[in-house]
Amino acid sequence: MPFVGLTGGMGAGKSTALGALERLGAAVISSDAVGGLVDRSAVAARAFATQEDRSWLEGLLWPLVGARVASWLLSVRTGPWSEGARPRAAVVEVPLLFEAGLESIYDATIAVVSDESVRAERAAARGHALADERAARQLSQHEKARRATFVVRNDGTEEDLQRELSEVLDKL
Questions:
Q1: Which of 7, 22, 26, 41 could be stapled to 129 by a disulfide with Cβ–Cβ 3.0 to 4.6 Å?
Q2: DSSP 8-state assignment for residue 20
Q3: What letters, b where the CB count within 10 A reaches 16 and e where it falls short, cover 136-164?
């Protein structure tokens, strides 16, 4: 079963892609969800205040998230799965996949990209605090796409996105 990292810029549609992959038969988990329920605005204000604060937070969270994802992957790979129910892939949504240097642990990576104006609208609609600071912390969409094994565009409908992701799963 392929182990796949899913990434993309803020507002590109990573969560939408993760939902589509689940509908297509992949086992999925979001590293953001693993981090637990927190006051995202408060964390964002602290995490993007200084490099030292961000490094401290990442040093605290990333090992915990990594351990939870490893445990999840083991359970996905070992089942028990009924005949024909084995997932097509195990997919982890990791917004900072390349920034954290995690690409080597995956069999493949998928970058979700979208038009910049669409991304900005989506991020604003979700009320992301400190959007400029978050974007500055991430690699550009172009760079994420360059590094990824597969690139899917998310400018159309959810059906269009799901069709592209189905093709990626077929290739895996």
A1: 41
A2: H
A3: ebbbebeebbeebbbbbebeeeeeebbeb
**Over the Cα atoms of the chain, what is R_g?**
16
Q: Going by C-beta distance under 8 Å and a sequence separation of 6 or more, which residues neighbour residue 29?
A: 69, 72, 91, 92, 93
pTM of the model: 0.84
The residue ranking higher by pLDDT, 52 or 111, is 111
Sheet arrangement for strand 3-8: 27-30, 90-93, 3-8, 108-113, 150-153
**Range 130-157 average pLDDT:** 83
d(CA 87, CA 156): 26
- Dihedral angle computed from the Cα positions of residues 98, 3, 13 and 25, in that order, rounded to the nearest 10 degrees: 180
Determine the straight-line distance between the first and last CA of the chain, rounded to whole angstroms. Answer: 9
Q: Identity (one letter) of the amino acid at 89?
A: A
